[in-house]
Amino acid sequence: MALAEEALRRQLGKYKFRDLTIEEVKNVSKTYPNFTFSMNTYTFKDGSQKDLLNFSGTVPVKYGNSYNIPIHLWILDSHPFAPPICFLKPTANMGISVGKHVDARGRIYLPYLQNWSHPKSTLNGLIKEMIAKFEEELPLYSLSSSDAARQSELLSYIAKITEGETDVKSRSKTGGKNEGSFNKITVVGAGDLGIACVLAVAAKDIADKVVLLDLSEGAAKGGTMDLEIFAVPNVEISKDFSSSADSKVVVLTVNSLGNAQTYLDVIQSNVDLFRGIIPAVSHYSQNAVLLVASHPVEVMTFVSWKLSSFPKSRVIGVGANLDSERLQYILTNLLKAEVLAKDAWVIGEQGEDKVSSWTTCNVAANQTEAMAAHNSREKVANRAMEVLKGKGQRSWSVGLSVADLTDSILKDKRKVHSVSTLAKGCCNINSEVFLSLPCILGTSGVIEMVRLEEDPLVQEKLQSSAGSIHDLQQQLRL
After folding, report:
1. How many angstroms separate the CA atoms of 434 and 411, rounded?
2. For 47-174, where are the E strands, in sequence order?
3. Is the dihedral angle over the CA atoms 160, 165, 171, 174 positive or is it negative?
4. pLDDT at residue number 379
Protein backbone atom coordinates (compact mmCIF):
# COMPACT_ATOMS: atom_id res chain seq x y z
CA MET A 1 0.00 0.00 0.00
CA ALA A 2 2.88 2.37 0.68
CA LEU A 3 4.14 2.12 -2.94
CA ALA A 4 0.60 2.52 -4.30
CA GLU A 5 0.03 5.52 -2.06
CA GLU A 6 3.25 7.15 -3.22
CA ALA A 7 2.33 6.61 -6.86
CA LEU A 8 -1.13 8.02 -6.19
CA ARG A 9 0.41 11.08 -4.54
CA ARG A 10 2.41 11.79 -7.70
CA GLN A 11 -0.64 11.32 -9.93
CA LEU A 12 -2.69 13.76 -7.85
CA GLY A 13 -0.11 16.53 -8.10
CA LYS A 14 -2.66 18.97 -9.55
CA TYR A 15 -5.39 18.20 -7.01
CA LYS A 16 -6.07 21.15 -4.72
CA PHE A 17 -6.58 18.99 -1.63
CA ARG A 18 -4.38 16.01 -2.42
CA ASP A 19 -3.87 14.72 1.13
CA LEU A 20 -7.60 14.78 1.92
CA THR A 21 -8.34 12.99 -1.35
CA ILE A 22 -5.74 10.29 -0.64
CA GLU A 23 -7.23 9.69 2.81
CA GLU A 24 -10.65 9.21 1.25
CA VAL A 25 -9.28 6.79 -1.34
CA LYS A 26 -7.55 4.76 1.37
CA ASN A 27 -10.81 4.52 3.34
CA VAL A 28 -12.69 3.31 0.25
CA SER A 29 -9.94 0.78 -0.49
CA LYS A 30 -10.24 -0.66 3.03
CA THR A 31 -14.00 -1.05 2.80
CA TYR A 32 -14.14 -2.18 -0.84
CA PRO A 33 -10.81 -3.87 -1.66
CA ASN A 34 -12.02 -4.88 -5.15
CA PHE A 35 -11.92 -1.25 -6.36
CA THR A 36 -9.15 -0.25 -8.77
CA PHE A 37 -7.81 3.30 -9.16
CA SER A 38 -6.34 5.08 -12.18
CA MET A 39 -5.96 8.48 -13.84
CA ASN A 40 -7.97 8.96 -17.05
CA THR A 41 -9.30 11.77 -19.20
CA TYR A 42 -12.89 12.86 -18.56
CA THR A 43 -14.83 14.81 -21.21
CA PHE A 44 -17.36 17.32 -19.88
CA LYS A 45 -20.59 18.34 -21.65
CA ASP A 46 -18.99 21.51 -23.03
CA GLY A 47 -16.29 19.43 -24.71
CA SER A 48 -13.52 20.38 -22.27
CA GLN A 49 -11.33 17.60 -20.90
CA LYS A 50 -9.44 16.99 -17.70
CA ASP A 51 -7.30 14.20 -16.25
CA LEU A 52 -9.14 12.92 -13.21
CA LEU A 53 -8.81 10.12 -10.70
CA ASN A 54 -11.40 7.44 -11.23
CA PHE A 55 -12.07 4.14 -9.61
CA SER A 56 -14.12 1.17 -10.68
CA GLY A 57 -15.48 -1.80 -8.83
CA THR A 58 -18.63 -3.52 -7.68
CA VAL A 59 -20.92 -2.88 -4.74
CA PRO A 60 -23.02 -5.61 -3.11
CA VAL A 61 -26.78 -5.16 -3.47
CA LYS A 62 -29.52 -7.40 -2.11
CA TYR A 63 -32.67 -7.38 -4.24
CA GLY A 64 -34.20 -10.75 -3.52
CA ASN A 65 -30.90 -12.33 -4.54
CA SER A 66 -27.45 -10.80 -4.05
CA TYR A 67 -25.95 -8.83 -6.93
CA ASN A 68 -22.62 -7.14 -7.53
CA ILE A 69 -23.41 -3.83 -9.26
CA PRO A 70 -20.47 -2.39 -11.27
CA ILE A 71 -19.91 1.35 -10.77
CA HIS A 72 -17.42 3.94 -12.00
CA LEU A 73 -16.65 7.12 -10.02
CA TRP A 74 -14.73 10.19 -11.23
CA ILE A 75 -13.11 12.28 -8.49
CA LEU A 76 -12.87 15.98 -9.32
CA ASP A 77 -9.69 17.91 -8.61
CA SER A 78 -11.57 19.99 -6.02
CA HIS A 79 -12.47 16.90 -3.99
CA PRO A 80 -13.61 16.57 -1.20
CA PHE A 81 -15.35 19.94 -1.58
CA ALA A 82 -17.13 18.85 -4.76
CA PRO A 83 -19.04 15.57 -5.25
CA PRO A 84 -17.76 12.89 -7.63
CA ILE A 85 -19.38 12.11 -10.98
CA CYS A 86 -20.92 8.66 -10.74
CA PHE A 87 -21.89 6.12 -13.39
CA LEU A 88 -23.00 2.54 -13.62
CA LYS A 89 -20.56 0.41 -15.62
CA PRO A 90 -22.76 -2.27 -17.22
CA THR A 91 -21.17 -5.20 -19.00
CA ALA A 92 -22.27 -6.16 -22.52
CA ASN A 93 -25.02 -8.44 -21.20
CA MET A 94 -26.50 -5.85 -18.81
CA GLY A 95 -29.21 -3.28 -19.49
CA ILE A 96 -29.80 -0.05 -17.59
CA SER A 97 -33.12 0.34 -15.77
CA VAL A 98 -33.87 4.03 -16.13
CA GLY A 99 -35.39 5.40 -12.95
CA LYS A 100 -35.38 8.19 -10.44
CA HIS A 101 -31.68 7.80 -9.68
CA VAL A 102 -30.26 6.53 -12.98
CA ASP A 103 -30.52 7.96 -16.50
CA ALA A 104 -30.31 6.15 -19.83
CA ARG A 105 -26.53 6.41 -20.11
CA GLY A 106 -26.02 5.12 -16.57
CA ARG A 107 -25.25 8.35 -14.75
CA ILE A 108 -26.24 8.14 -11.11
CA TYR A 109 -28.17 10.91 -9.33
CA LEU A 110 -28.62 10.73 -5.57
CA PRO A 111 -29.73 13.16 -2.83
CA TYR A 112 -26.35 12.49 -1.22
CA LEU A 113 -24.63 14.01 -4.27
CA GLN A 114 -26.96 16.99 -4.43
CA ASN A 115 -26.43 17.74 -0.74
CA TRP A 116 -22.68 17.06 -0.75
CA SER A 117 -20.88 18.97 2.01
CA HIS A 118 -17.40 18.29 3.37
CA PRO A 119 -16.58 16.92 5.93
CA LYS A 120 -20.02 15.40 6.49
CA SER A 121 -20.07 13.81 3.02
CA THR A 122 -17.61 11.03 2.21
CA LEU A 123 -17.07 8.53 -0.58
CA ASN A 124 -17.91 5.63 1.73
CA GLY A 125 -21.09 7.42 2.78
CA LEU A 126 -21.98 7.95 -0.89
CA ILE A 127 -21.48 4.28 -1.73
CA LYS A 128 -23.57 3.29 1.30
CA GLU A 129 -26.50 5.42 0.07
CA MET A 130 -25.98 4.10 -3.45
CA ILE A 131 -26.39 0.54 -2.18
CA ALA A 132 -29.52 1.52 -0.22
CA LYS A 133 -31.15 3.16 -3.25
CA PHE A 134 -30.22 0.27 -5.55
CA GLU A 135 -31.83 -2.15 -3.09
CA GLU A 136 -35.07 -0.19 -3.52
CA GLU A 137 -34.84 -0.20 -7.32
CA LEU A 138 -32.30 -2.44 -9.04
CA PRO A 139 -30.48 -0.31 -11.67
CA LEU A 140 -29.45 -3.11 -14.04
CA TYR A 141 -31.06 -6.15 -15.63
CA SER A 142 -29.88 -9.06 -17.80
CA LEU A 143 -30.03 -8.70 -21.59
CA SER A 144 -30.40 -11.28 -24.30
CA SER A 145 -27.71 -11.17 -27.01
CA SER A 146 -29.89 -9.08 -29.38
CA ASP A 147 -30.86 -6.71 -26.57
CA ALA A 148 -27.20 -6.31 -25.66
CA ALA A 149 -26.37 -5.08 -29.16
CA ARG A 150 -29.29 -2.66 -29.04
CA GLN A 151 -28.22 -1.38 -25.62
CA SER A 152 -24.70 -0.74 -26.90
CA GLU A 153 -26.06 1.23 -29.85
CA LEU A 154 -28.32 3.27 -27.58
CA LEU A 155 -25.49 4.17 -25.19
CA SER A 156 -23.34 5.20 -28.15
CA TYR A 157 -26.04 7.53 -29.45
CA ILE A 158 -26.73 9.04 -26.03
CA ALA A 159 -23.02 9.67 -25.54
CA LYS A 160 -23.04 11.70 -28.77
CA ILE A 161 -25.92 13.99 -27.91
CA THR A 162 -24.90 14.48 -24.29
CA GLU A 163 -21.51 15.61 -25.52
CA GLY A 164 -23.22 18.31 -27.55
CA GLU A 165 -23.32 16.72 -31.03
CA THR A 166 -26.58 17.80 -32.65
CA ASP A 167 -25.99 16.71 -36.24
CA VAL A 168 -27.02 13.09 -35.74
CA LYS A 169 -28.65 11.83 -38.94
CA SER A 170 -32.22 10.54 -38.71
CA ARG A 171 -32.74 6.96 -39.77
CA SER A 172 -35.34 4.23 -39.56
CA LYS A 173 -34.70 1.32 -37.23
CA THR A 174 -37.48 -1.10 -38.12
CA GLY A 175 -38.64 -2.85 -41.22
CA GLY A 176 -42.10 -3.95 -42.15
CA LYS A 177 -44.74 -1.41 -43.03
CA ASN A 178 -43.80 1.73 -44.89
CA GLU A 179 -42.92 4.31 -42.25
CA GLY A 180 -45.12 6.98 -43.84
CA SER A 181 -48.27 4.84 -43.74
CA PHE A 182 -48.02 3.51 -40.18
CA ASN A 183 -49.09 5.90 -37.44
CA LYS A 184 -47.53 4.91 -34.14
CA ILE A 185 -47.74 6.89 -30.90
CA THR A 186 -45.83 6.32 -27.69
CA VAL A 187 -47.12 7.62 -24.36
CA VAL A 188 -44.40 7.77 -21.69
CA GLY A 189 -45.76 7.36 -18.17
CA ALA A 190 -48.48 4.99 -16.95
CA GLY A 191 -50.07 7.23 -14.33
CA ASP A 192 -53.62 8.55 -14.60
CA LEU A 193 -52.67 11.10 -17.27
CA GLY A 194 -50.75 8.59 -19.37
CA ILE A 195 -53.61 6.10 -19.32
CA ALA A 196 -56.10 8.90 -20.09
CA CYS A 197 -54.02 9.84 -23.15
CA VAL A 198 -53.94 6.23 -24.35
CA LEU A 199 -57.71 5.83 -23.99
CA ALA A 200 -58.44 9.18 -25.68
CA VAL A 201 -56.15 8.38 -28.63
CA ALA A 202 -57.69 4.91 -28.92
CA ALA A 203 -61.21 6.38 -28.81
CA LYS A 204 -60.45 8.75 -31.70
CA ASP A 205 -58.93 5.85 -33.67
CA ILE A 206 -56.11 8.02 -34.99
CA ALA A 207 -53.19 5.60 -34.56
CA ASP A 208 -52.38 2.17 -35.89
CA LYS A 209 -50.54 1.42 -32.67
CA VAL A 210 -50.21 3.04 -29.25
CA VAL A 211 -47.34 2.07 -26.95
CA LEU A 212 -47.71 2.86 -23.25
CA LEU A 213 -44.21 3.01 -21.81
CA ASP A 214 -44.51 2.19 -18.11
CA LEU A 215 -41.33 3.18 -16.29
CA SER A 216 -42.64 2.56 -12.77
CA GLU A 217 -42.32 -0.55 -10.67
CA GLY A 218 -45.58 -0.53 -8.83
CA ALA A 219 -47.34 2.84 -8.67
CA ALA A 220 -49.38 2.39 -11.86
CA LYS A 221 -49.87 -1.37 -11.99
CA GLY A 222 -53.62 -1.11 -11.40
CA GLY A 223 -54.23 0.99 -14.51
CA THR A 224 -51.95 -0.93 -16.84
CA MET A 225 -53.37 -4.21 -15.55
CA ASP A 226 -56.87 -3.05 -16.47
CA LEU A 227 -55.72 -2.14 -19.98
CA GLU A 228 -54.33 -5.66 -20.34
CA ILE A 229 -57.44 -7.31 -18.86
CA PHE A 230 -59.87 -5.54 -21.20
CA ALA A 231 -57.54 -5.76 -24.21
CA VAL A 232 -57.83 -2.26 -25.65
CA PRO A 233 -57.18 -2.72 -29.39
CA ASN A 234 -53.79 -1.70 -30.83
CA VAL A 235 -52.37 -0.83 -27.40
CA GLU A 236 -49.06 -2.30 -26.23
CA ILE A 237 -47.73 -1.91 -22.67
CA SER A 238 -43.97 -2.07 -22.30
CA LYS A 239 -41.05 -1.16 -20.07
CA ASP A 240 -38.53 -1.28 -22.91
CA PHE A 241 -37.61 1.96 -24.70
CA SER A 242 -37.01 0.04 -27.92
CA SER A 243 -40.76 -0.67 -28.16
CA SER A 244 -41.24 3.03 -28.91
CA ALA A 245 -39.15 2.80 -32.11
CA ASP A 246 -40.39 4.82 -35.10
CA SER A 247 -43.18 6.62 -33.28
CA LYS A 248 -44.62 9.63 -35.10
CA VAL A 249 -45.54 11.31 -31.80
CA VAL A 250 -44.09 10.71 -28.34
CA VAL A 251 -46.24 12.06 -25.49
CA LEU A 252 -44.46 12.79 -22.18
CA THR A 253 -46.75 12.52 -19.14
CA VAL A 254 -44.31 11.46 -16.39
CA ASN A 255 -43.87 13.49 -13.22
CA SER A 256 -41.48 12.72 -10.39
CA LEU A 257 -43.07 11.48 -7.17
CA GLY A 258 -40.09 12.29 -4.97
CA ASN A 259 -40.01 13.91 -1.55
CA ALA A 260 -38.86 17.33 -2.76
CA GLN A 261 -39.54 20.16 -0.32
CA THR A 262 -39.53 23.25 -2.55
CA TYR A 263 -41.05 24.04 -5.95
CA LEU A 264 -37.56 24.22 -7.45
CA ASP A 265 -36.73 20.79 -6.00
CA VAL A 266 -39.89 19.34 -7.55
CA ILE A 267 -38.95 20.66 -10.99
CA GLN A 268 -35.36 19.50 -10.60
CA SER A 269 -36.68 16.02 -9.81
CA ASN A 270 -38.60 16.09 -13.08
CA VAL A 271 -35.51 17.28 -14.93
CA ASP A 272 -33.51 14.40 -13.42
CA LEU A 273 -36.22 12.01 -14.59
CA PHE A 274 -36.25 13.46 -18.12
CA ARG A 275 -32.46 13.11 -18.38
CA GLY A 276 -32.96 9.37 -18.55
CA ILE A 277 -36.01 9.42 -20.81
CA ILE A 278 -35.60 12.03 -23.56
CA PRO A 279 -32.28 10.77 -25.02
CA ALA A 280 -33.66 7.23 -25.20
CA VAL A 281 -37.00 8.02 -26.89
CA SER A 282 -35.24 10.51 -29.19
CA HIS A 283 -32.84 7.79 -30.24
CA TYR A 284 -35.54 5.29 -31.14
CA SER A 285 -37.85 7.83 -32.83
CA GLN A 286 -35.53 10.38 -34.39
CA ASN A 287 -38.24 11.91 -36.62
CA ALA A 288 -40.95 12.12 -33.94
CA VAL A 289 -42.75 15.14 -32.59
CA LEU A 290 -42.29 15.34 -28.80
CA LEU A 291 -45.51 16.42 -27.11
CA VAL A 292 -44.95 17.35 -23.46
CA ALA A 293 -47.75 17.17 -20.88
CA SER A 294 -45.58 16.94 -17.75
CA HIS A 295 -45.54 19.82 -15.26
CA PRO A 296 -44.64 22.62 -15.41
CA VAL A 297 -45.25 22.23 -19.11
CA GLU A 298 -43.32 25.33 -20.25
CA VAL A 299 -40.15 24.34 -18.39
CA MET A 300 -40.35 20.63 -19.22
CA THR A 301 -40.86 21.42 -22.91
CA PHE A 302 -37.69 23.51 -22.78
CA VAL A 303 -35.87 20.66 -21.04
CA SER A 304 -37.10 18.17 -23.67
CA TRP A 305 -35.89 20.45 -26.46
CA LYS A 306 -32.44 20.78 -24.92
CA LEU A 307 -32.03 17.07 -24.13
CA SER A 308 -33.34 15.79 -27.47
CA SER A 309 -31.38 18.08 -29.83
CA PHE A 310 -34.54 18.12 -31.97
CA PRO A 311 -35.45 21.23 -33.97
CA LYS A 312 -37.75 23.59 -32.07
CA SER A 313 -40.65 22.82 -34.41
CA ARG A 314 -40.74 19.18 -33.26
CA VAL A 315 -40.84 19.84 -29.50
CA ILE A 316 -44.11 21.29 -28.23
CA GLY A 317 -46.08 21.35 -24.99
CA VAL A 318 -49.82 20.84 -24.54
CA GLY A 319 -49.84 24.43 -23.28
CA ALA A 320 -53.18 26.21 -23.40
CA ASN A 321 -54.82 24.04 -26.06
CA LEU A 322 -57.46 22.79 -23.62
CA ASP A 323 -58.17 26.28 -22.26
CA SER A 324 -58.39 27.73 -25.79
CA GLU A 325 -60.86 25.07 -26.93
CA ARG A 326 -62.92 25.69 -23.81
CA LEU A 327 -62.81 29.47 -24.32
CA GLN A 328 -64.04 29.13 -27.89
CA TYR A 329 -66.80 26.77 -26.75
CA ILE A 330 -67.92 29.16 -24.00
CA LEU A 331 -67.99 32.11 -26.41
CA THR A 332 -69.94 30.17 -29.03
CA ASN A 333 -72.41 28.19 -26.95
CA LEU A 334 -72.84 30.10 -23.69
CA LEU A 335 -72.29 33.71 -24.68
CA LYS A 336 -73.53 33.34 -28.29
CA ALA A 337 -70.50 35.16 -29.69
CA GLU A 338 -69.57 32.72 -32.43
CA VAL A 339 -68.00 35.40 -34.64
CA LEU A 340 -65.51 36.25 -31.91
CA ALA A 341 -64.85 32.67 -30.87
CA LYS A 342 -62.89 31.55 -33.93
CA ASP A 343 -60.18 34.18 -33.31
CA ALA A 344 -60.01 33.88 -29.49
CA TRP A 345 -57.08 32.16 -27.81
CA VAL A 346 -55.65 31.55 -24.37
CA ILE A 347 -51.90 32.13 -24.48
CA GLY A 348 -48.87 32.49 -22.20
CA GLU A 349 -48.19 30.04 -19.39
CA GLN A 350 -50.52 27.58 -17.73
CA GLY A 351 -52.12 28.69 -14.48
CA GLU A 352 -53.23 32.07 -13.20
CA ASP A 353 -50.92 34.01 -15.53
CA LYS A 354 -52.61 32.84 -18.73
CA VAL A 355 -54.21 35.58 -20.82
CA SER A 356 -56.73 35.79 -23.66
CA SER A 357 -55.75 37.22 -27.03
CA TRP A 358 -56.94 37.49 -30.63
CA THR A 359 -55.50 36.63 -34.02
CA THR A 360 -57.33 39.33 -36.04
CA CYS A 361 -57.68 43.07 -35.65
CA ASN A 362 -60.93 44.99 -35.43
CA VAL A 363 -62.05 46.50 -38.72
CA ALA A 364 -63.90 49.78 -38.13
CA ALA A 365 -64.60 52.98 -40.06
CA ASN A 366 -62.94 55.21 -37.49
CA GLN A 367 -61.07 55.17 -34.19
CA THR A 368 -64.25 55.67 -32.13
CA GLU A 369 -65.93 52.64 -33.64
CA ALA A 370 -62.76 50.61 -33.25
CA MET A 371 -62.51 51.49 -29.57
CA ALA A 372 -66.17 50.63 -28.98
CA ALA A 373 -65.77 47.28 -30.73
CA HIS A 374 -62.61 46.57 -28.74
CA ASN A 375 -64.30 47.35 -25.42
CA SER A 376 -67.31 45.22 -26.30
CA ARG A 377 -65.12 42.30 -27.28
CA GLU A 378 -63.05 42.58 -24.11
CA LYS A 379 -66.18 42.51 -21.95
CA VAL A 380 -67.32 39.29 -23.60
CA ALA A 381 -63.83 37.80 -23.33
CA ASN A 382 -63.60 38.68 -19.63
CA ARG A 383 -66.92 36.99 -18.97
CA ALA A 384 -65.73 33.90 -20.83
CA MET A 385 -62.46 33.83 -18.88
CA GLU A 386 -64.39 34.02 -15.60
CA VAL A 387 -66.39 30.96 -16.64
CA LEU A 388 -63.15 29.27 -17.73
CA LYS A 389 -61.54 29.79 -14.31
CA GLY A 390 -64.10 27.46 -12.77
CA LYS A 391 -63.01 24.59 -14.99
CA GLY A 392 -60.33 22.31 -13.59
CA GLN A 393 -57.91 20.24 -15.66
CA ARG A 394 -58.60 16.58 -14.95
CA SER A 395 -56.49 13.80 -16.42
CA TRP A 396 -59.21 12.75 -18.82
CA SER A 397 -59.73 16.29 -20.13
CA VAL A 398 -55.99 16.75 -20.71
CA GLY A 399 -55.98 13.32 -22.36
CA LEU A 400 -58.66 14.50 -24.79
CA SER A 401 -56.60 17.60 -25.52
CA VAL A 402 -53.53 15.45 -26.21
CA ALA A 403 -55.58 13.30 -28.59
CA ASP A 404 -56.78 16.45 -30.36
CA LEU A 405 -53.21 17.69 -30.86
CA THR A 406 -52.00 14.25 -31.95
CA ASP A 407 -54.82 14.03 -34.49
CA SER A 408 -53.77 17.35 -36.06
CA ILE A 409 -50.14 16.21 -36.25
CA LEU A 410 -50.68 12.72 -37.65
CA LYS A 411 -53.28 13.80 -40.21
CA ASP A 412 -51.36 16.94 -41.18
CA LYS A 413 -54.52 19.00 -40.63
CA ARG A 414 -52.75 22.39 -40.58
CA LYS A 415 -55.12 23.34 -37.78
CA VAL A 416 -54.33 26.18 -35.34
CA HIS A 417 -53.73 25.24 -31.69
CA SER A 418 -52.41 27.19 -28.72
CA VAL A 419 -49.37 25.10 -27.78
CA SER A 420 -46.13 25.68 -25.88
CA THR A 421 -43.54 26.66 -28.46
CA LEU A 422 -40.23 28.50 -28.40
CA ALA A 423 -41.26 32.13 -27.92
CA LYS A 424 -37.89 33.77 -28.51
CA GLY A 425 -38.33 36.57 -31.02
CA CYS A 426 -42.05 36.97 -30.33
CA CYS A 427 -43.40 39.98 -28.40
CA ASN A 428 -39.84 41.25 -27.80
CA ILE A 429 -38.93 38.09 -25.85
CA ASN A 430 -35.18 37.51 -26.10
CA SER A 431 -34.72 34.43 -23.91
CA GLU A 432 -35.15 30.74 -24.74
CA VAL A 433 -38.50 30.05 -23.10
CA PHE A 434 -41.58 28.15 -24.22
CA LEU A 435 -45.00 29.81 -24.01
CA SER A 436 -48.40 28.94 -25.43
CA LEU A 437 -49.00 30.71 -28.73
CA PRO A 438 -51.35 29.96 -31.64
CA CYS A 439 -49.50 27.67 -34.07
CA ILE A 440 -50.40 25.74 -37.21
CA LEU A 441 -49.65 22.06 -36.61
CA GLY A 442 -48.77 19.35 -39.12
CA THR A 443 -46.72 16.17 -39.40
CA SER A 444 -43.50 18.07 -38.69
CA GLY A 445 -44.91 19.78 -35.60
CA VAL A 446 -45.16 23.56 -35.66
CA ILE A 447 -45.39 24.75 -39.26
CA GLU A 448 -46.02 28.40 -38.54
CA MET A 449 -46.81 30.70 -35.63
CA VAL A 450 -50.02 32.68 -36.18
CA ARG A 451 -49.69 36.45 -35.77
CA LEU A 452 -51.46 37.89 -32.74
CA GLU A 453 -53.21 41.21 -32.57
CA GLU A 454 -50.89 43.78 -31.04
CA ASP A 455 -51.93 44.57 -27.49
CA PRO A 456 -49.44 46.24 -25.10
CA LEU A 457 -51.05 44.67 -22.02
CA VAL A 458 -50.87 41.17 -23.48
CA GLN A 459 -47.25 41.68 -24.54
CA GLU A 460 -46.38 42.91 -21.05
CA LYS A 461 -47.88 39.78 -19.49
CA LEU A 462 -46.07 37.50 -21.91
CA GLN A 463 -42.76 39.25 -21.23
CA SER A 464 -43.34 38.95 -17.49
CA SER A 465 -44.07 35.22 -17.81
CA ALA A 466 -41.00 34.75 -20.00
CA GLY A 467 -38.83 36.52 -17.43
CA SER A 468 -40.01 34.41 -14.50
CA ILE A 469 -39.72 31.15 -16.46
CA HIS A 470 -36.23 32.04 -17.66
CA ASP A 471 -35.12 32.87 -14.11
CA LEU A 472 -36.42 29.47 -12.96
CA GLN A 473 -34.68 27.64 -15.80
CA GLN A 474 -31.38 29.26 -14.91
CA GLN A 475 -31.50 27.56 -11.50
CA LEU A 476 -31.95 24.06 -12.91
CA ARG A 477 -29.18 21.54 -13.47
CA LEU A 478 -29.53 20.10 -16.96
Report:
1. 24
2. 49-63, 65-75, 85-88, 94-96, 140-142
3. positive
4. 61
In this structure, what is the dihedral angle of CA atoms 260, 262, 266, 269, given to the nearest 10 degrees?
A: -60
Regarding predicted confidence, which is higher, 229 or 8? 8
**Would strands 434-442 and 445-449 be described as parallel, antiparallel, or unpaired?**
antiparallel
Q: Is the separation of the CB atoms in 457 and 249 below 8 Å?
A: no
pTM for the predicted model, two decimal places:
0.65
d(CA 319, CA 338): 23
Spatial distance between the Cα atoms of 130 and 110, rounded to a whole number of angstroms: 7
Backbone angles phi, psi at 20, to 5 degrees: -65, -40
Q: Are 109 and 103 in contact (CB under 8 A)?
A: yes
For 167, 216, 392, the CA distances from 137, given in Å and listed in that order, are 35, 10, 35
| Bridge partners, residue 28, by sequence | none
Specify the pLDDT at position 300.
Answer: 97
Residues 6+ apart with CB under 8 A from 48: none
Name residues whose C-beta falls within 8 Å of residue 231's C-beta, 6 or more positions apart in sequence: none
Query: What percentage of the chain has pLDDT greater than the value 90?
Result: 39
Ranges of beta strands (E only) in 26-84 are 36-43, 49-63, 65-75
pLDDT, tens digit, 9 for 90 and up, residues 112-171: 887 788 888 999 999 999 999 998 888 888 765 555 555 566 556 555 555 544 444 333
Taking each helix axis as running N to C, give the angle between helix 145-162 and helix 263-284, from 0 to 180 degrees, rounded to the nearest 10: 120
32-39 long-range contacts, CB within 8 A, separation 24+ = 32/57, 32/59, 32/127, 34/58, 37/8, 39/11
